[in-house]
Amino acid sequence: MNISAELLSFLRGASRAVALTGAGASQESGLRTFRDSQIGLWAQYRPEELASPEAFARDPKLVWDWYAWRREAIKGARPNAGHYALAEVEKKIPQFTLITQNVDGLHRMAGSLALLELHGNIQRVRCSECGEYAETWNEDSETVPRCDYCEGLLRPDVVWFGESLPRNQLERAVEASRACDVYFSIGTSGVVQPAASLAHAAKKNGAIIVEINAETTPLTEKADFFLQGKSGEILPALVKAMWG
Ligand code: APR
């Protein structure tokens, strides 16, 4: 993968960078993208039918089982070269903020610290009533585990369709996107708000937009640079070209 000299010179001059990642950034870790997650027995459901408060109210066990299945699928997953490259970028660019829509925890596992998990983290579980986090729970229970404090049903600590994003994380994401010189959109279809609007906030404030994706997306035509391919290959090539 050759990175254009123009992009490299932009990056060399950048002191503030933001990267937004989506499910594509974890695809090379063997995790299905969000829209590919419905396979096998889950294929009969649309994501909205599994990842929403209404779905949980209607059938908590079905929703709990889908997330238990996804936690199981993630158990064997390891960060890929793209995750590690982003952890490297954080060490090289003074003000770097990594914003992820992924709930798989792989960026944290790769060592990224300046991380905003906009949609939560599937490895965390909290009470649907009192909000207390559960340290442990019986993953094999026949019924949805309940909160030790108030007996409420436990749920994954992720943002469901129709729910608002963690306010603090979103505010920091918007602030970083507005202030950056370079904004990377990596492995995301850029269709789900409000994450999808961060690139526009960056562009409006003069940032250059770099998109890394296996395919074009609605953002591609607005991006200053479009690097088509796998993020697990492109990101390490970018780090190598920048910092050897
Ligand atoms: N490298 C780079 N991009 C990839 C790769 C890869 N190896 N594999 C897939 N992609 C791209 C696809 O082309 C697609 O544009 O990753 C994107 C995945 O898009 P989605 O499945 O829509 O996932 P995402 O953009 O993260 O969805 C955003 O929507 O469904 C909600 O909350 C859910 O966080 C999710 C959000």
Could you describe the 3D structure shown?
- With 244 residues, this protein is of the alpha/beta class.
- It folds into two domains: 148 residues, 3-Layer(aba) Sandwich (Rossmann fold), CATH 3.40.50.1220; 74 residues, SIR2/SIRT2 'Small Domain' (2-Layer Sandwich).
- Helix content is 36%, strand content 18%.
- Helix 6 packs parallel to helix 10 and helix 8 packs parallel to helix 9.
- The model has no long low-confidence stretch (mean pLDDT 92).
- It binds adenosine-5-diphosphoribose.
- The site of adenosine-5-diphosphoribose has 22 residues, from helix 2 and helix 10.
Care to give the gist of this entry?
By secondary structure, the chain is of the alpha/beta class.
Main traits of this protein?
244 residues; Rossmann fold; SIR2/SIRT2 'Small Domain'; 2 domains; 6-stranded parallel beta sheet; binds adenosine-5-diphosphoribose
Mean pLDDT level? 92
Radius of gyration: 19 Å
- The neighbouring-strand order within the major sheet is 3-2-1-7-8-9
CATH topology of the largest domain: Rossmann fold
CATH superfamily membership of the largest domain: TPP-binding domain
Strand content: 15-25%
| CATH domain class of the largest domain | Alpha Beta
Give the number of helices: 10
Helical percentage: 25-40%
Principal-axis shape equals elongated
Largest sheet: 6 strands, parallel
Provide the number of structural domains. 2
Flag low-confidence runs: none
Structural class: alpha/beta
| Attached small molecules | adenosine-5-diphosphoribose
According to DSSP, the number of beta strands is 9
